[in-house]
Amino acid sequence: MKLYTSLSPGSRLDVERVDVALVIDVLRATTVMTTALAKGASEIVTCLTVNEAVKLAARDRKNTLLCGERACQKIDGFDLGNSPAEYSSDRVDGKTLVLTTTNGTRAIATAALARAVYAVSFLNLTRTAQHIRNQKSVLLVCAGTDGYLTGEDVWLAGAIADRLTNLNPSVESCDSTAIVINAWRNRFGHRETTDSIARTFRETRGGRNLIRLGFEDDLVRCAAIDSLPILVQRVSREPSRFTSGG
């Protein structure tokens, strides 16, 4: 396996050359996607703009929820924001979710040309790594925060890369992948827990934004490592649709 990592949204991506792209937006889009599908949502449709989301949802408003945020806050007129706490079974079970976020859905769009795309969070970290361990080429796409590299995405990329190198001895890592592996190992040293990961989120740009806006509890929700072991996999490209796998 050749394992590549894009550390920030501005990085050059040769996504059409890779078998699999793993999109990472720990705080909070890919965590929300994992949570929603685990709680029974039928599918998630991601899009870049608010107008696009509204138009897509209007096709079947009865069975569709408009979801997403701008500047960490729920968009006016939308059903749900971008906190995993909002995505309970009684709210999303059987529903199609149309999702647009500041960073995560843009990262998904940049990965669109990859042959397969998965959304990854700490919640489904190990399950996803196990599923793609025999692919020939994998690209880790960090969404970042407001155009900047952010620590929580780097640590998750490192955790995924670390697991893949343990699962597949043939992994060949690029320099940026080596950087994220070292960042993960140096910070956690294979002693990671939900609490220790959540504490590190408090130091990052994305984490500080959430605390300032009253979403501090989401740091623990987004750090709940391997708590929802499902796959979040793209099943169509235009628009990008994701469903769950066992």
From TrEMBL:
MF terms (GO), sorted A to Z: 2-phosphosulfolactate phosphatase activity; magnesium ion binding; sulfopyruvate decarboxylase activity
The keyword Transferase belongs to this UniProt entry's keyword annotation: no
Record-stated family: Belongs to the ComB family.
Substrates-to-products reaction catalysed: (2R)-O-phospho-3-sulfolactate + H2O = (2R)-3-sulfolactate + phosphate
UniProt name for this protein: Probable 2-phosphosulfolactate phosphatase
Superkingdom of origin: Bacteria
SUPFAM superfamilies: ComB-like
Presence of keyword Magnesium: yes
PANTHER family: 2-PHOSPHOSULFOLACTATE PHOSPHATASE-RELATED
InterPro entries for this protein: ComB-like (IPR005238), ComB-like_sf (IPR036702)
EC number in record: 3.1.3.71
Obligatory cofactor(s): Mg(2+)
Keywords: Hydrolase, Magnesium
